[in-house]
Amino acid sequence: MAAGSSSDYIKHHLTNLVFGQKADGTWGLAHDAAEAAQMGFWKFHVDSLGWSFGLGILFLFLFSRAAKRATTGVPTGFQNFVEIMVDFVSNQVKENFHGRNPLIAPLALTIFCWVFLMNLMDLIPVDWIPSLFALFGVHYMKVVPSTDPNITLGMSFTVFAMIIYYSIKVKGISGFAGELTLHPFSNDNIAVKILLIPINLFLETINLIAKPISLGLRLFGNMYAGEMIFILIALLPWFLQWTLSVPWAIFHILVITLQAFLFMVLTIVYLSTAHEDH
Fold first, then answer.
1. What's the whole-model pTM score?
2. I need a labelling partner for 196 at 20 to 30 A (CA). Which of 62, 86, 142, 210 fits?
3. Measured between alpha carbons, how far is 274 from 164 in angstroms, rounded to an integer?
4. CA distances from 204 to 4, 94, 198, 231 (A)
5. Are 151 and 52 a contacting pair, CB within 8 Å?
6. CA angle 176, 273, 107 (to 5 degrees)
7. Are 102 and 275 in contact (CB under 8 A)?
């Protein structure tokens, strides 16, 4: 395959289906990456949003169906699977969350399953779904929402908003402000303590902001790299594609599970810290 066509192939698979305001003031779908860039900040990645919501609805449907059909008798295989998932997440919450909040366990279960389902889309051959949508005139279709930083950072900043909310709720505004200004350096001398406030505020603010950024970028970076490898494998001759894609897909199962687990555990840990009142 020629270098130009290879480059175009990669760019095509990494381009989102974008909806926004065009240069002439009308709203619609972008026909290429250049037109998408002209739409500015207020544009929507239709494919990432659509697959994210669709997979979220799939998760709710499957687990609600299992809950409605749950029995105390001999459980079905799917009920066993759901119970294992619930127990697994419940144990993680018990080990890592040290406060009292009935929201944390359902939140952790939702995060793990939702992120896992989004990551799981990476195992679908890269040309199958885009080729299907191309038959209906849709020429751009990214099917792995977690390879879009807008999705991963959107989730991480939602967690960040919860961290701020519970920090203020549990500790009060003065307690939260004290954490930001009186740690990590402190002194019994009131004058020295006041001098240390700007340094503490600077360090703690960086530490606070780094949490959602690292949480979102870690998931995005790992999944984007995995998707890029699948795209590069798809550029090889067909006999090499199957030779390389199958081992990488098997290994990638561990990656997508680990990334979902890390996102869940770090969310639990961050919210646990927000509930600790010193």
1. 0.92
2. 210
3. 7
4. 48, 27, 10, 40
5. yes
6. 115
7. no
Residue the block writes with tokens 């779908």: 29
Catalytic residues: 214, 218, 222
State the Cα torsion 76-80-82-87 to the nearest 10°.
Answer: 160
**Residue pointed to by tokens 């646990």:** 272
What distance in Å separates the CA atoms of residue 41 and residue 105, rounded to the nearest whole number?
34
Q: Which two tokens stand for residue 106?
A: 């359902």
In order along its 278 residues, the chain shows pLDDT tens digits of 445 588 889 999 999 999 999 888 899 999 888 888 889 888 999 999 999 999 999 999 999 999 888 887 777 788 899 999 999 999 999 999 988 899 999 999 999 999 999 999 999 999 999 999 999 989 899 999 999 999 999 999 999 999 999 999 999 999 999 999 988 888 888 888 889 999 999 999 999 999 999 999 999 999 999 999 999 999 998 888 889 999 999 999 999 999 999 999 999 999 999 998 76
> What is the Cβ-side half-sphere exposure of residue 148, based on CA atoms within 13 angstroms?
26
Please report, for the chain, the start and end positions of each structural domain, with discontinuous segments joined by +.
Answer: 48-130+146-275
Residue with tokens 């289906």: 17
- Burial-class residue 19 by CB neighbours within 10 Å (0-12, 13-18, 19+): middle
Strand, helix or coil for residue 43 = strand
Helix%, strand%, coil% for the chain, nearest 5: 75, 5, 20
CA-nearest of 92, 68, 91, 89 to 78 is 68
